[in-house]
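Morning!

As promised:
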Amino acid sequence: MTILKTTGLTKKFGDFAALDGVDIEVGKGEVYGFIGPNGAGKSTTIRVLLGILKATEGQATIFGKDVWKDAVDIHKRVAYVPGDVNLWPNLTGGEVIDLFIKLRDGNNASRREELIRRFDLDPSKKCRTYSKGNRQKVALIAALSSDADLYILDEPTSGLDPLMERVFQEYVKEAKAQGKSILLSSHILSEVEQLCDKVAIIRQGKIIETGTLKELRHLTGTMLLVETKEPMPQLGEVPGVRGIEQKDGALSFQVEQEELDNVVRYVSRFGIIRMESAPPTLEELFMRHYEGTGTGGAL
Amino acid sequence: MDKHLFAGTGKLSRFILRRDRIRMPVWIFSFVFATVVIGVALAGLYENAQERQAIAATMENPAMTAMVGPGYGVANYTMGAMLAHQMLLMTAVVVGLMSVLLVIRHTRTDEEEGRIEMVRSLPVGRLANVTATLAMLFLVNIVLAVVTGASLYALNIDSMDLEGSFLYGAVLGATGMIFASLTAVFAQLSHNARSAVGLSIGFLLAAYIVRAIGDVGNEAISWLSPLGWILRSEVYVNNIWWPVLLTVGAAILFGALAMYLNAIRDLGAGFLPARAGRIHASPLLQGPLGLAFRLQRTGLIAWAVAMYVLGVSYGSVMGDMESFFADVDIMQELLVPVEGFSLVEQFIPTLMSVMAIIATIPVLMAILKLKGEEKNGRTEHVLGRAVSKNRLLGSYLLIALIASFVMLSLAGLGLGTTANAVMEGGVDVGMVYEAAMAYLPAVWAMIGLTVLLLGWLPKFTGVIWLYLSFSFFVIYLGNLFQLAEWVERLTPFGYISGLPIEQFDLLQAAMLTLIAVVGVAAGFVGYNRRDIG
């Protein structure tokens, strides 16, 4: 079942196209990773989905409803954490959390207390005294204590320490287990790799790659590290082999999925001493798309 | 005392002067300029002793005593006595405010922003910053005292002799010094800049009020307030110096106390216990309306008090208004006599129009707060939840509408009741209140225009302030400069009938209300259609 879907979503600010035909689809119970560097269009997409920005062209629906026209109805079942959490300096964290829960017409006191404890937040302090990480905790606690069907999280952990990041990941996994859907925008790739079923990579307002991690890896191929008794001078000419590098007397290279069998047969003729294989990390995937383009911002 | 505590004080002092090389001279210049201009203006308005005695009579009532302090030398109301009586206390209060803001800026604000931490990591003594701040504040106030004294003496007015002029300056400087030291103490007590400013300004207001109570009732009470001390110098009348010396002495003592407290506390800490905030939102803070109110509560209450005080101030001078008008030429140009109405009644529409325009400021601020929230990226928290744009904008609109009613009511009631109390034969409070309420449609029209801008041209909401300033200029000076009728018709305030001397014009009020409704409706449409943020 589709929870969130955009087709040909375009947003222009004057002549500048911040989004240029974005298609994403999040199914029920899915964690959807949305990755890209700063300025690629992640937050703009999310703001369109929230009905705060109006799309110039294209469709965007959540729960089958139009994100602009039915924003209020949709938001009753959505929880959102912005990337840059700006709070009211003269309200306390506790007041803000309560207000946010009330604005969704929700009430879940025990859950609120549990989250405050787990995230180790002092709710009696004024927001002006909070660091970036603490402001993010306020937004996360308000979002996670609500009983939403879709969570839209825009770089929710960029200010959290590793311990809190782990707490966050636990809650995301719990939500997923309960059949909730999550749109997670991030540029912390290890986090996306840990949590997400599907990934979309956005660059300069366009989705350039999308699919499950498995599918994306398939595109890139497997990393092999091989040390042989005899040298393999002709390895570069074997079909499906790319990016050969010397590493401590061994060779490291990428192999296309279809050619894996042939390459392993070829290599075995030179007497294997050591052989390690690893799926490509998301970072390598990501870098492949961004390297050499020079635009679209840095990670 | 350990010399190391003060290491680097000289360098930090120069650094403070460097940071405030514009700010401090502007403060000093403003005080000197305002004092001199008012001195010249008073000399021009009241050319002879007879006119001055007439105005002196209007000043002898408890309301004026509460406002500007006891009048010294009222029997022989010279130019100097008049200037010191009417201006010295008010100016001294603002000098105190300057000291509060400058001291907090260089102490608690720097500490809160983490700048003191960096300074302290250098070879700089623990007391260097607070010492440098106080030293520079004392310097600023001494310069202010000398320049004010010299400027007043340079006016070359008979009754304003050398000693009196410098005493006038010294009173201002001493007030600045004592509030600089007191603020430095408060900066040690509280945890953050905001509450330190609050404590200091609160103390300044309390000092003013305690003095007012004392001056009207029991003089002994006035001695509890530093502002009460300085008035005892009887500038230009008896020129008594010891209150100034007493104040400066107290300033030095409190300065030493601030240093002691600074020396024994941790960086970032305060002596008053940090009050833990609410862990839960109050029943009021449960939706966009509650939030909109909560964010503006302090400001709105302050404005409400200010509007009431403004009304009371205008009302308090109504007492001897008739003789005042008879004696002062410029006022007769302002008012063309109308048959069947007293001069006071004729003056009410002019006062009301000014108060209505001032009352519009907090009303428009209440709506434009939403713009500020949007700019600071906080509306998305609200709109990202189950809140429609209509409900959000509607919350701010409702607060503005209530504010328009409350602000005008308080101004009108303040004026009416005070005028009734001080005037012989009294005045009809209901009539004054109606005259105030008559301005509601004009304020609503301004609300309509503001919502319209917010909905369609959010980048240009500042234009409304230009328009309000234009309205003020046209209405306030319209009569004086004999501006053409059509110029006044360029602002909604020019369509309001001046009760009680004119009949209430229902049609014009209805038209203004219609403009307000159309503006608001169109603004809502625009707000619903446009991007946020």
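Chain A is about 30% helix and 30% strand.

Hope this helps with the figure draft.
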